[in-house]
Recover the amino acids of this structure.
């Protein structure tokens, strides 16, 4: 599987990550088959969070695969913390406690990557820095990143945190592409020009922070999958046409569209279906033309000035 460096780090990662938020939709045997297939196909980067299934997703993952030292060596594990019931919490105490819980559930001694899941309005970056130092010194976490953060929030952290921020996980799909469309429509009098994220896409490129698009097949906030959906007839016609040209499925093209962006993003897949997973992985070998990329972008209703 093709790899990219994660942010400024020396860690080489597959161009797609396997998200585990939905793994409890499988039973233990199904989860084992899914995780083994991913690893056999070279997709050995797994994305977790302490809140997925209230911890049940991390537990099922490690139980199903029979986590031990040799299994662990063959995979790259990322998890997230900072979301609590009714609040966000980037306090040192919460970060440290959360990581201990994550390591216990994943049955591992270290995380390759820890992300802060969603911005905490009460963040005290000095505390985050202390937590990261403690985790790095103890060997519990090797690399650090964020999720759903804008450039200023990242800069605030970077003023105190000495480890490089290697990744920013953000919602992005063909139908949720505001971070791309605001950059195309700069200063225009149309809705697409609204810059909701402080130019996070360009900021991450400038600072070598890998963007990890989450929910690459969803429209809205988990409203459903846009592929094959009658709400998006033009988009599906175009994707199907491009898929036919490459002899692949529409699933492959949806991921190839994200991978075509030169920011070298690492989409986080949500499927728990091994055939769909394989279709997603095929995208690593496809480079859409500029025309195909823009045709798909416009077919989703995105406008050009
Ligand atoms: N940082 C954050 O705030 C955040 C938020 C949400 C998610 N995430 C991460 O991102 C990952 C992906 O999120 P997601 O699960 O919402 O992403 P997704 O890949 O957009 O959605 C996956 C869901 O769509 C279904 N699906 C139906 N048709 C599909 C098709 N043709 N291709 C692919 N999937 C199809 C899948 O069903 P099947 O299983 O049957 O294929 C699955 O239920 C999560 O696992 C998690 O790791 C992060």
């Amino acid at each position: 599987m093709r790899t990219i460096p994660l942010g400024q780090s020396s860690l080489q990662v597959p161009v797609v990550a396997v998200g585990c938020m939905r793994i409890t939709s499988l039973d233990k045997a199904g989860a084992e088959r899914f995780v083994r297939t991913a690893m056999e196909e070279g997709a050995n980067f797994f994305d977790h969070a302490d809140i997925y299934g209230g911890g049940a997703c991390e537990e099922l993952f490690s139980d199903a695969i029979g986590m031990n030292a040799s299994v662990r060596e063959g995979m790259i594990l990322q998890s997230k913390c900072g979301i609590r019931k009714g609040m966000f919490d980037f306090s040192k105490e919460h970060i440290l406690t959360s990581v201990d819980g994550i390591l216990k559930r994943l049955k591992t001694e270290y995380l390759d990557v820890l992300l802060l899941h969603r911005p905490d309005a009460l963040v005290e970056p000095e505390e985050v820095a202390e937590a990261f130092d403690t985790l790095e010194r103890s060997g519990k976490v090797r690399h650090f990143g964020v999720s759903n953060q804008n450039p200023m929030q990242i800069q605030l952290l970077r003023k105190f945190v000495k480890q490089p921020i290697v990744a920013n996980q953000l919602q992005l799909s063909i139908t949720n592409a505001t971070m791309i469309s605001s950059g195309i429509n700069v200063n225009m009098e149309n809705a697409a020009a609204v810059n909701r994220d402080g130019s996070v896409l360009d900021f991450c490129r400038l600072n070598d922070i890998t963007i990890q698009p989450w929910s690459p097949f969803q429209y809205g906030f988990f409203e459903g999958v846009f592929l094959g959906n009658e709400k998006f007839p033009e988009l599906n016609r175009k994707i199907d046409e491009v898929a036919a040209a490459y002899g692949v499925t529409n699933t492959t093209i949806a991921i190839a569209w994200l991978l075509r962006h030169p920011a070298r993003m690492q989409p986080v897949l949500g499927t728990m279906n091994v055939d769909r997973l394989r279709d997603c992985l095929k995208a690593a070998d496809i480079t859409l033309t500029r025309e195909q990329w823009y045709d798909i972008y416009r077919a989703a209703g995105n406008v050009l000035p």
User: Anything to note?
Assistant: Residues 19-22, 47, 147-148, 169, 214-218, 222, 225, 227, 251, 268-273, 276 surround NAP (CB under 6 Å).
